[in-house]
Amino acid sequence: MTEKRNQSGAETDVLVSQAYRDLADERTPERLDRTILRAAAKEARPRYSRFIAWTRPMAWAATVMLSVALVLEVTDTPSPEADAMDDSPVDSLGESVVPASEIPKKQSNDMRQKAAAVAEQEISPQQPAARERAERRSDTAEFKIKNEDMLQQAEELARVQAGEDKQPSPAVSADAEQEFAAGRALASAAAFAAPVADCDEDAVTTPQTWLGCIVALEDAGRDDAAHEQRAMLAEAFPDFDPR
Amino acid sequence: MLSHTVELAYARPMDNVPEDSALMLRYCDGDVAAFEVLYRRHNDAVFRYLLRLCQHRDTAEDVFQDVWGKIVKARDSYRPTAKFTTFLYRVAHNCFIDHIRRNKRHTQTADVEPDTQPNPADLPEVETERSLARRRLEAALQELPEEQRDVFLLSEEAGLSLDQIASVTDSNRETAKSRLRYAVNKLRAAIDEPVRTS
Predict the structure, then answer these.
(1) Looking at residue A137, what is its pLDDT?
(2) Residue range B49-77: mean pLDDT, rounded
(3) CATH 1.10.10.10: which residues of chain B?
(4) A4, B29, B78, B138 - which has most CB atoms within 10 Å?
């Protein structure tokens, strides 16, 4: 009885099995063993090891470089505030004041329009705080520039009038009354549009219009501004009697 | 369920020899030494299985390398749901089938080594009866139908049961049993023939 069951239960023949065992003595070539074991070792390595080996130092280097660049940028570049402090004077509110001669005419006009627009937007009877804020702005550079312009123009006018005739003629006085009324209207309009403004360019061209503007300021209850304008009027037109 | 199976596979057997599945799981965790133990345990048997199936040494080496390459690649997806030997020989069987489909040159052009081809004219007179039987078995094995040879080799080289053989060859148990019986009978006849004639 040569038939048997092998350890796993498959029927086989002892003689055949023995003969096959004698026959089957081939072994795997050594080079194949090496190849397969090398491939297995390569596959077992973590796949991301090479990636990590490159990225970690690169990440560190990038971080250090960025930090150094940032520090150098911060330390070397002067701040804009410092520039502003160095280049231009600053008024009591912290805003830079530029002499009128240094500001181009067009820019000056733009600034005036901007200020008027801001005043229109911000000022209303229901907003006393806004009014106060706007009045404070009237002391800023733009209005100072305007006053300086007006002063210069008034001085020029005074010089011209002083050279020609010390007493105004009747025609001149009629004109003066008209100009006074026009100045008052201008001042009223300016006070309505922008109560912060004292007397604009048009109002100070003649002493009459200027006086009208001053009266309008007094009517508006701005006695301080009116007093200041009176002083400026007296200085610009010493021969003009405002009474 | 799966974790329980993994625990069993990792458990130390009674004879302190780690099971194939445990070795494979250790390799899945990156233990290359475990894979080497596993490989040394099965490499020769798998090689002989493929050598007898392919009947061509170079082809057998190619398929052998392909088989272990797939085992290595399977480390990420390997689950010890079946006996490792069954898994290994199923991979080997499938690689062989794939190779046949790819290369039509696998026909009856057996590239048998000269010393294994029986040539009565060259046989020395002193060759023993056993040696002759061995040569005749070799020849008979090569003449077996591919399915019968496959089943016989799975039984002899891998030590698989009929159920496992059926699983590897994608057939049922009765088919595997029938193929094995036919194969054994033919080989036995080949071995016995010279004894009867002598």
Answers:
(1) 52
(2) 91
(3) 116-198
(4) B138
